[in-house]
Amino acid sequence: MDGVVVDSNGAHRETWILFNRRYGLETTEAMLEFMYGRRNDEIVRGFFGEDLPDAEVAARGAAKEQLFRETMAGKVEEHLTAGLLEFLERHRAGPMAVASNAEPANVNFILDQAGLRPYFRAVVDGHQVERPKPYPDIYLRAAELLRTRPADCLVFEDSHSGVKAALAAGMRVAGISSTHAELPGAAVVVDDFLDPRLETWMKAQTRAA
């Protein structure tokens, strides 16, 4: 979702910086790079220490994401990845899912604010599986809900951990370069959903299936 459906990286960076200052923690560029593609419990422990109690980890993660939603309120549509709506409309007859490490409240917020929910037959967030990306669990669960073989699934990813998760699930990957210019393991990497190479690649995968 983040970095693929919506270009939210800037908002997440901004809110992590503001949130961490509540605890006297200045956020480095390395810390911001660390957050990409990770679930919140991993990020919070990475920033504040592994010995933080589970309840406090959850509370800090929830508070940060509340700040993110406040920052993005009323702005989600303008941050959708270029060409996304047209892409979803072209492929709405096929089984599509959102599989994100994001908090459930954030997933619901993005899908509902932008009116995207009707396009997706399944929605899997980072708390519906035991192991987040880069483990394959979240993508295998999405395939199960779509009643589709993993080998028949095409995944769109912007993060290194997401690409690893999709490949580990036995799926084929198209990279969106909103977060990283290079995504090792992705069969094709494009800037957004306007790039004609994306449709060409998808048609080739359909013929090969």
List the helices and strands and how they pair.
Blueprint: H1 9-21, H2 29-35, H3 40-48, H4 54-72, H5 84-90, E1 97-99, H6 104-113, E2 122-124, H7 137-146, E3 154-157, H8 160-168, E4 172-176, E5 188-190, H9 196-208
Parallel strand pairs: 1-2, 3-4, 4-5
Report on the structure:
The chain has 209 residues and is mainly α. The chain has 2 domains: 64 residues, DNA polymerase, domain 1 (Orthogonal Bundle); 132 residues, HAD superfamily/HAD-like (Rossmann fold, 3-Layer(aba) Sandwich). Helix content is 46%, strand content 9%. It is built from 9 helices and 5 strands, in the order αααααβαβαβαββα. The strands form 2 sheets. The chain has a 3-stranded parallel beta sheet, sandwiched between helices. The chain has a two-stranded parallel sheet with strand order 1-2. The radius of gyration is 17 Å and the shape is globular. The relative contact order is 0.13. The mean pLDDT is 95.
